[in-house]
């Protein structure tokens, strides 16, 4: 008989030892879960709070050896060896999200084709193999040029507005996606367990860094109409049901100026757009992911309070031992919760932590979020 998750002989393996894994472990400690983590960086954020193995996530033998000692496997990053995960499944190991779904989502090309085939609204797109093919579709501009694989945190994405930008196009398999004149970018986190229970978190509104295409801060709930919120919720549920995914799925969406909701991308793991749920919702995205993959009843997702989340990014021009300028000023504010990710070295735009602000008064919340964004700086 398989051990229960709260028994000492149960081990949950996580591929990836970054901040998402760190917060997953912090949540899982409440359930007495033993975690084993694999990451290529010996000083990854998870290395001090779990059984830790240094190794490549994309190496077949490394992932196989790691997975053999675990009862259940999950991910905190998509760039993993899915063949190894499929073979571990064949050996009786449970892997959530399922390896074939991870493989589909790893490539933005197959992801977009999946949306198209399943009637999930998304921007018009063209698949391209190289820079020359992008250039041959100049009439499709303005568009966003995305690498099919290995783009993340703003990398592998660039805007091509007109023919003058074509020389910047990626010379690798990717896609051209129509540039959407959107009103807002929102996200919904949706969860599903093996029993088929599905829950969604209220939509959040994301504001991106103007240069680096990283989420700079977000507000929850999103300032959208009830109709648009209901439409986004329905679409998020359709995506997870169409995939058949077990775990949590972050669904990033555009709200167009004429009120349509279009899916941009999805991530089959905890996500930047759900950090605020730790303090602001009845159940955090991390606990919900654990509940889903352990096939436990899913938690309530209702909001306790309006909230904002500010990403702490390394300041441009600073590399070295991290220092947090303005920390005391920020900690004086009521409703402020600081989360640092255990990264000793800062680099320009590196994600070093986040701050969640909760406040029943939305105007006060906005002021505090602006104060935190302007005051707390990561320097060296």
Question: Your description of this structure?
Answer:
The protein is of the alpha+beta class. The chain folds into 3 domains: 11-95, Rossmann fold, CATH 3.40.50; 124-178, 2-Layer Sandwich (Dna Ligase, domain 1), CATH 3.30.1490.20; 182-379, ATP-grasp fold, B domain (D-amino Acid Aminotransferase, Chain A, domain 1, 2-Layer Sandwich). The protein contains 11 helices and 22 strands. The chain has helices at 19-28, 60-68, 82-90, 99-106, 108-117, 131-135, 226-243, 277-280, 285-293, 327-331, 362-375, and strands spanning 11-15, 34-39, 51-54, 72-75, 94-95, 125-128, 143-147, 157-160, 174-178, 182-192, 198-200, 204-208, 215-220, 247-256, 261-267, 307-313, 320-321, 323-325, 336-340, 345-346, 351-358, 377-379. Strands 10, 11, 12, 13, 14, 15, 16, 19 and 21 form a 9-stranded antiparallel sheet that branches. It has a 5-stranded parallel sheet with strand order 3-2-1-4-5, with helices on both faces. The longest helix is centred in the middle third of the chain and has 18 residues, at 226-243. The protein is globular. The N and C termini lie far apart (52 Å). 43% of the residues are buried.
